[in-house]
Design brief:
By secondary structure, this protein is mainly alpha-helical. 81% of the residues lie in helices and 0% in strands. The protein has 12 helices and no strands. Helix 2 runs antiparallel to helix 10 (202-219). The longest helix is centred in the N-terminal third of the chain and has 31 residues, at 3-33.
């Protein structure tokens, strides 16, 4: 491969690795909580906030300006507050229903906002669909620093976050404030989603969150093993997807999403074969 192509792909690949690192971990929590579409909903809410900010004079028409980022982050915080409050109460309406409604309303509102856009329409499309090939090294560095801070926060309080995700009834019985830690989880999630949507778009962010975690669940029960499998899958798929999109002249985000789906299908098909082979092996004698 030509050296110039490798240099061109270096920043997008680094960004995809950063996305894999934080989203595969958060995906473990999301899958265990059973709120599979919370990332998709928060990502769409973040995109709505960015869309509205871009249409206001304060943004100056810059889709990567601070006004766009902070408005988008504020919208995700509102979503985080709603989701944590609903779970905190013994409501009759399932949380997944609220998440789905928020996604639908945010999507429709973004479409309405875009209908009023003129010259900004292409920028709005990039924010919603994503263009990871256009990421720069300064963006990669800033994103790595932010995700590192979020990762450190989750590591320090890992026992509490794992408790409310794995066994919330036990955590509540031990005196933990489910509503408070839920909000902190979704708020930190909001920081990640706001930056991820600007880089990769809504659909790709959803795949980075869910697909590696689902694939890991096929082969492991322990959190450590799931993370190792998820990170490995995300790394391979990211490199392959970016390469195929460039070679075949296809949209990068959509190519990586389809590559995620294909690899997940392969992993699911291989699992029964591996299980049969393991069962057929004779037991180890001391």
């Amino acid at each position: 491969m030509d050296t110039s192509i490798l240099e061109f792909l270096a920043a997008p690949f680094a960004a995809s690795l950063i996305l894999t690192g934080i989203h595969a971990y958060l995906g473990v929590h999301v899958v265990e909580r059973g709120v599979i579409f919370v990332d998709l909903s928060l990502a769409q809410i973040a995109a709505l906030g960015a869309t509205i900010a871009l249409l206001l004079p304060i943004s100056g028409g810059d889709p990567h300006g601070p006004a766009v980022y902070w408005t988008s982050l504020a919208f995700t915080f509102i979503g985080a507050l709603v989701f944590s409050t609903i779970r905190g109460r013994h409501a009759r309406i399932p949380l997944e229903a609220i998440i789905g409604i928020c996604y639908a309303v945010a999507s429709a509102a973004a479409i309405l906002a875009m209908s009023k856009a003129t010259s900004e329409s292409e920028h709005l499309k990039d924010m919603l669909v994503g263009n990871i090939l256009a990421v720069s090294w300064p963006e990669v560095g800033a994103t790595a620093a932010l995700y590192g801070a979020v990762g450190l926060f989750h590591y320090i309080f890992r026992h509490k976050f794992l408790a409310i995700s794995m066994d919330p009834k036990r955590a509540q019985a031990e005196g933990m404030s489910i509503r408070l830690w839920d909000f902190l989880f979704y708020a930190s999630f909001g920081f990640v989603v706001t930056s991820s949507v600007a880089i990769a778009g809504v659909l790709l962010v959803f795949c980075y969150l869910i697909v590696p975690s689902v694939a890991a669940m096929l082969y492991a029960d322990e959190i450590g093993k799931r993370l190792a499998i998820g990170w490995s899958m995300g790394t391979v798929v990211s490199g392959l997807g970016v390469y195929l999109s460039l070679r075949l002249d296809l949209p990068t985000g959509a190519t990586i999403v389809c590559t995620f789906g294909l690899v997940l299908i392969i992993m699911a098909a291989v699992r029964p074969l591996l299980q049969r082979r393991l069962h057929a092996m004779p037991p180890v004698r001391n």
